[in-house]
Design goal:
heterotrimer; A mainly alpha; B alpha/beta; C mainly alpha; A: mainly alpha; 2 domains; two-stranded antiparallel ribbon; 9 helices; 69% helix; flat; B: alpha/beta; Rossmann fold; 10 strands; disordered N terminus
């Protein structure tokens, strides 16, 4: 099985084998429904009855849950404390005087946390179960520009190398006596000697990379073929359309019920 | 798998039809090129002919115009680099100035120094990376699969087929780059210092592959290289460039033992250096040609050993 | 599907992933310095200056998606539109020749920072409850405490960091394009906007 790239976690699950666009449709629907359906509890219900079972089915439950939790908690704490307590003109519910949780603030905090939960979990689930290159290939086969495909996948893949380069430059400059700890002024002075060499050395590659990609026929006229065949089951096409319509329906419903 | 074994021993790559029957693969006549924004030409009035199947090494000090020559052969001058290209360049029967780059890339495969820059980044396995060029050319899937397998066997990448091309060593990455180019079946292969950014192991891996390609005589190989011992052992012919012009052209044994070549800062092989030292000590027979390879050096030094 | 190249030539196309990787590598490097800067859109601004507003916008958009998809910071993804605007503005200012002088570059950065804080505020308010989950929430708290609404408080938080961050970003880009060799620079449509 291919190595992990980016967030993608290779797993032998039924979900992983689904067509990328199906997964895109699923996460898109959960996102839209979670945000558009009325009631502050609807995102929670969607996470509970949609996202979590899906995660179990995809065998990414533990990773999804822990990552989502780690991301959401700081927001949750902040939003409950700040918006909960400092909600202007709110009706106090718990607490004393000014340091009390207001009802409207708490409602907002609950709704907010629900929204953060749905945005983060749907995005994470999609990224954990879908290989970016597969997604891009699938979209390219449906007419998406190969340039866009190139942009997204190669960006994700070359990041580690640039991170390594940054670490090398940091070491080299520190060996030359650059101070990166201490007073704020000293640390700010370290910015230029770190950032400028990193960027200049990275830009040197650009011309050669452009040459190399031309040499591989990237701008060759005519239709491109695909080495990897990305198939989808018949019912997946049906599901994709259904979800797209459901998303549209949810949005229309929300728009009308305002 | 030990690099150097088994390379080139599998099926040969089929030769593209258009070039069957061509005797002289590459012709340059009076070629002069100046990069935009520079004053002096990088290559001046350069002419040569390279017959099909030859393994030609190009050496010379930095700034001599070697990379410029590589880009001209591959058609990137004038199609990728602006500036005026004067003179005639013909590769595999095609005039590189009037033929579109899309056709030229199928005639000439170009390998550059930095392995990382040649990995597209859009593919997650070595196998798919190699197929990338064929996807762009619109080759049918069944043929792609076959060609990719053949090339991977040729270059010894079978074990790495499912690995991410960006998670490899320099030598492995460079071999992937070579495979990615070979899979497009160009009759000409141009390599611009392919080992200069590699460690000794990586260099050895790459040399093994190139040697196998060249010895099969199916491809015409032009290699810009600094490692003179290697050039001396395997090249059919050595072209020396200095300051944008042709300095010497001939067999490795002659060119690399030539004093005017050394004076241009090209350097000598260790064997030549040893021979020169003996010359200084007065122990070398007057007028006898200095050795450039191990094979030449051994009998010559053995004779010297007997004298002592 | 039509021409794969859109209006970008190959070198611009190849520049973008490098710029995105620069965004991430520099962003992380700066994070280790623990200074009140992010500098995580420096690549985006660079593309906007070298290759124009559209290329800059595309870089910003994809950059935030990549922050998310590579697992480094998922919370950046909803702000993709903001990053796109930063790239767009970089290109617009460059075309207005503001990147020719250092102080105009700084000013361009300040303006971009203010606009970026303004666009971030509603996204932050809607998706993230108007908070960042980090230390700068103190500012949100202060403004909320004084009775300011959700959006103004979020904007206030943004405006204490974005203009400075973008000003330094634009200044660094000004410095960098000056240090680039003409041979490289001349390949990009924005080259004429940079040197006088």
């Amino acid at each position: 099985m291919a190595e992990a790239i980016g967030l993608y976690l290779p797993r032998a699950s039924f979900v992983h084998r689904l067509h990328p666009v199906t997964k895109l449709a699923i996460s898109g629907f959960i996102l839209v429904a979670g945000l558009a359906l009325p009631g502050m509890w609807s995102p929670y219900l969607l996470v509970l009855f949609g996202m979590l079972p899906l995660a179990v089915l995809s065998r990414v439950f533990r990773v999804l849950a822990s990552r989502t939790w780690r991301i959401v908690v700081p927001f949750m704490i902040s939003v409950f404390l700040i918006q909960g307590i400092l909600w202007s003109g709110g009706t106090p519910l718990i607490g004393f005087g000014p340091i009390s949780f207001k009802r409207e603030g708490l409602q907002f905090a609950v709704a907010s946390t629900g929204r953060i939960l749905i945005v983060v979990s749907s995005f994470l689930w999609f990224a954990l179960t879908t290989r970016p290159d597969m997604l891009m290939s699938a979209l390219a086969q449906r007419g998406l520009s190969p340039s866009l495909s190139y942009l997204i996948v190669s960006s994700i893949q070359i990041v580690p190398r640039f991170q390594a380069r940054a670490a090398t430059i940091l070491d080299a400059q520190r060996a030359r006596g650059l101070e990166v700890t201490g007073s704020m002024l000293r640390r700010m002075r370290a910015v230029v000697p770190l950032v400028v060499p990193l960027i200049l050395s990275s830009l040197i590659d650009v011309e050669e990379r452009a040459l190399a990609i031309e040499a591989r026929g990237f701008n060759h006229p005519g239709p491109k073929t695909s080495f990897v065949e990305i198939t989808q089951a018949g019912w997946e096409a049906f599901l994709q359309w259904f979800l797209v319509l459901a998303m549209a329906a949810t949005l229309i419903f929300r728009f009308l019920s305002r | 798998m030990v690099p150097g074994t088994g390379y080139g021993s599998h099926a040969h790559l089929p030769v593209p039809l258009e070039i069957a029957g061509i005797g002289i693969m590459i012709t340059l006549k009076g070629v002069t090129y100046t990069y935009p924004g520079t004053d002096s030409p990088a290559l001046q009035d350069f002419s040569t002919e390279i017959p099909r199947g030859q393994f030609c090494a190009v050496i010379g000090p930095n700034g001599a115009g070697k990379s410029t020559l590589a880009y001209i052969l591959a058609g990137f001058i004038p199609h990728f680099y602006q500036g005026t290209l004067q003179g005639e360049v013909s590769v595999a029967g095609k005039n590189t100035t009037t033929t579109p780059l899309g056709d030229l890339i199928r005639m000439v495969g170009l390998i550059l120094q930095n392995p990382f820059n040649q990995i597209s980044g859009t593919k997650v396995t070595v196998r798919e990376e190699i197929a990338f060029g064929l996807e762009n050319l619109g080759v049918a899937r069944s043929e792609m699969i076959e060609r990719v397998e053949t090339v991977m066997a040729l270059v010894g990448l079978g074990d790495l087929a499912e690995r991410s091309p960006l998670a490899l060593s320099g030598g492995q990455m460079q071999r992937v780059a070579i495979a990615s180019v070979l899979v497009m079946q160009p009759p000409v292969l141009v390599l611009d210092e392919p080992t200069s950014q590699l460690d000794p192991i990586g260099s050895k891996e790459v040399f093994s592959v190139v040697r196998a390609m060249a010895s099969s005589r199916q491809m015409t190989v032009i290699m810009i290289e600094h490692k003179l011992e290697w050039v001396a052992s395997f090249a059919d012919r050595v072209i020396v460039l200095a300051e944008g012009a042709l300095l010497a052209d001939g067999d490795p044994e002659d060119v690399l033992a030539n004093e005017s070549v050394w004076r241009q800062g090209v350097g000598q092989t260790r064997y030549t250096l040893a021979g020169r030292r003996l010359e200084e000590l007065g122990k070398w027979k007057e007028g006898k040609k200095l050795p450039v390879t191990l094979e030449e050096a051994v009998p010559a030094f053995r004779k010297f050993q007997k004298q002592v | 599907m039509a021409d794969a190249r859109r209006n970008f030539n190959t070198i611009t196309l190849v520049l973008i992933p490098v710029a995105i990787a620069i965004n991430i590598a520099v962003g992380q490097l700066i994070y280790t310095l623990k200074i009140p800067l992010y500098l995580d859109s420096i690549g985006t601004v660079l593309v906007g200056v070298l290759a124009g507003p559209l290329a800059g916008a595309l870089t910003g958009l994809i950059s935030n998606l990549v922050w998310g998809l590579s697992g480094l910071n998922v919370t950046y993804a909803p702000f993709a539109a903001v990053a796109a605007v930063i790239g767009l503005l970089a290109g617009v200012f460059a075309e207005a020749k503001w990147l020719r002088t250092w102080w105009k570059a700084i000013l361009a950065g300040v303006i971009t920072g203010i606009i970026s804080a303004a666009i971030s505020a509603p996204i932050s308010a809607y998706v993230f409850g108007g908070v960042t989950g980090a230390g700068t929430d103190v500012i949100v708290a202060i403004f909320r405490g004084f009775g300011f609404g959700l959006l103004p408080s979020s904007f206030a938080q943004g405006v204490t960091s974005d203009p400075l961050d973008k000003a330094i970003t634009f200044l660094l880009v000004w410095l960098i394009v000056r240090a680039l060799p003409m041979r490289f620079l001349s390949r990009f449509p924005g080259a004429s906007n940079i040197s006088a």
